[in-house]
Structures are given as structure tokens and as C-alpha cells.
What does this fold into?
Amino acid sequence: MDVYKINGQKRLQGTIKVSGAKNSAVALIPASILAGSPVTIEGLPEILDVWTLKELLEEIGGDVSFENGTMTIDPSKMQGMPLPNGNVKKLRASYYLMGAMLGRFKKAVIGLPGGCFLGPRPIDQHIKGFEALGAKVTNEHGAIYLRADELRGAKIYLDVVSVGATINIMLAAVMAKGQTTIENAAKEPEIIDVATLLTNMGAKIKGAGTNIIRIDGVEELHGTNHTIIPDRIEAGTFMIMAAAAGDGVTIDNVIPFHVEALTAKLREMGVKVEENEESIFIPKSVNLNAVDVKTLVYPGFPTDLQQPFSLLMTQATGSSVITDTIYSARFKHIDELRRMNASARVEGRTAIIAGPTHLQAASVRASDLRAGAALVLAGLIAEGETEIRDISHIERGYSDLVEKLSGLGADIRRVSIEVAQGSTKED
Ligand code: EPU
It folds into this structure.
């Protein structure tokens, strides 16, 4: 089994570069299915989810190359094959294959998506959208079956503001007959990124980034070149790391506007954040103040930074409160942080964290992607050697993390360890 070993308390200094946005990548790649000719996407992160999607597109007949962050997808020979099992269950975002395959082939069979367990993660709003467009949707033996004789534009009001449903409905609607309106749409930058790709493929989309998106269906789409936006969650993770363990860190390839909610909270804590056009500099931080945070849909404080930010709260003076309004069970990292001496408890959707605490190294488990990121940051500031298990969760979302952190002076290694006989991953 591979683990990360981190010798903590090294002060970090220098420049760290942010990769392309994971949550854009996992939608942009399926969007290429809708084109009639090759699509090239540049700046993709080299993470497990991207490799899995490459394999999925190949399974349906796509000709795909991926090198140095650039993926070229020739979708012309793709077919609407069923994908009930296998790779499709490795990542939650395989749900975008539903919208894209329905849009192109008017049919799709997709196994119910996997991904991090963060509490219930229904896809009822995606289904509601597909049905409104004219698809018949059934759930059989753990797979979703979608079929339509034709897709017709419709007015769809989302009961819950959902990134996934907004993008999935866009994918299904761009080649539907007539106009589709998505009301109460999500406004995340990743939605704008996907809309930009689709528009450059010939789609007619207005309002992406606002809560009303209008789509006029077109007959066909064509290939294009697209450069992905930087990953605002990776950037945010590095900003938090710089505040916790930095002696002056520049985070490069970031759109400061995308991380404003985090910047505001860091400043409230007493962290200096210097914004440039495409980079952010965070000098050494001293005397952090306790703050309260509530996660919200964009442009509010992102749920994806709740776990890394709660690590920073262990270093602030006083009692901090962080509430996750998006996911009910995204607090598995708190138990692990407690093993490292953090003073924290969870009440419902809220974690209450007292600080500052002197963290100590321990052997801990990454229960999910962002929990893993929080534990890596904890290892960087803890005394002694921290061992992080189940790092595959982390590598689903952060590319070249060991190399990037080592570049700042962190002592982090990815090593294979022997697991004692009879013990399991769940130990
Ligand atoms: N929801 C419903 N019904 C639906 C869809 C969502 O009730 O049909 C609820 C969810 O249970 C949740 C809320 O609505 O409480 C928001 O879910 P959303 O659909 O926006 O989440 P998602 O699209 O499944 C994306 C990111 C997540 C990120 C959330 C929220 C991708 C692939 N994933 O998930 O990213 O936490 O938006 O911003 O884009 C991560 O990167 O670590 C991650 C989990």
C-alpha cells in the first residue's frame, strides 16, 4: 500500500503552480462527445479522474490522446454503448456522460456514480431536467437508463442549486429542439468554463454564471480548442497551506476573483493576501484569529475548502465554528485531526475547533479527497512524521502534489509500506 510520509514543521517558501480545474475537467471531457470533429483541451490536471474519463471515452469508441496536460478527443466514431459497470463507478462525475450521451445519441445507460461519500448525494435534479427535455429515465439494477425519441427545449427550475444538474442539463439541451431555460442555476466558474467550450463548439448559451441560463438548441456541434480554467479549490488549498506553514508563498495560475470568499476569511483571520493578476502572494502569518465560516453555493465559501480550512482553525487563537450547509457528513477528517492533537468536535453539520494547538504526527486515513488535503496540511505543520493512508482519494483531485510541495521545501514522500497480514484497508 502506498502512503504519504510527511516530516512536519518545515517552513515553506517559493512558488507553487496550480493545475487545471478538476471539476471543469470532468465535465469538459464528456462534453466533447457532443462534437462532430476533434476537440482539444489544454491544461488538464493529470489526476486519476481524468485518466478514468479518457478510458471511458475510449470504451465508447473515442480516439483519445493525452500528453502534457493536453487531451485531443476525436468523437466521430463514438457510439451510444451502455456503461452500466466498471470505470463509470470510479468517479462521481461520470454522471456527465448521461447528459452528453443523451444529447448526442438520444440514449445512455450509466452505472450510478461513485466518488467521495459526503452524506447523501442525490441526482434527482439531473433526472428532472432530462425528463423535462423529453427523456424517459429509469433506474434498473444500479444503472440509470435514459432514452428519448427527440429532445425538446423546456423551462426547468432547479429545486436545489446544483453544479452537476446545471451542467448536465446544458449538455443534454445544446442540441435539443427549441429553447431551454434553467432557472435557479448554479453559478460556479466551472459552469462558465463548460459553457465557453460548448459555445466554441457552436452551441448557443446565454447567462452561464448567472442563475438563469438560456440555451437555443442547434442541429450540430463541431470540434474546437479550449484551455481549462485554473483549479480554484487547489489554489485555495495552497493559500490555506501558505497561511499555516508558509514563510512567503506565491500561488501561481489562479484567478483571484474565483477565491474571493476564502481571501476574505483569511484576511479576517489576520492573514495578509496580496492579489496580482494571475497569482497570489501570502507572506508568513502570525497570530491567527478565530473566525466563523458557513459554506454556501458560489460565490459563497466553498464546501470543498471546509476541510482544509478547519485545519487552519486549529492554529487560530480562540474558538472557531465551521458549518457545512451543502453536505451533511463532510467531517470525517475531524476525528483524524483529533488523533493529531486537535481540539475539535462535530455537532450535526458544524465543527467547533479550539486553538491554537500544537499538532503531533500520527498515522491517519484520508476518508475522501478534501479530508486528505486537510491531513496533508496537518502533516506539514505537525511535529514528527505523519503517515497518510488511502492516498488514492487525494490523487483523484490533486496532481503532482508531492512534487509541488517538495518544491516549496516540504519533506513529503510517497512510499510503499507493508500491511500486516489479516489487516485491511479499513483498519
Ligand atoms: N443535490 C440534490 N439533488 C441533485 C443534485 C444535488 O439534492 O440532483 C444536493 C447535493 O446533495 C448537495 C447540493 O445539492 O447537497 C449541491 O450538490 P451539487 O450538485 O452542486 O454537487 P455536485 O455537482 O455533485 C460538485 C463538485 C463537488 C462540490 C459540489 C458543490 C464536481 C464533479 N463535484 O458536486 O466537488 O463539492 O459541486 O460545490 O463538480 C470536490 O471537488 O471535492 C467535490 C466534492
Notes: Confidence is low (pLDDT under 50) at residues 422-427. Residues 23, 26, 92-93, 116, 120-126, 160, 162-165, 186, 233, 303-304, 326-327, 369-370, 397 surround EPU (CB under 6 Å). The two ends are 13 Å apart (CA to CA).
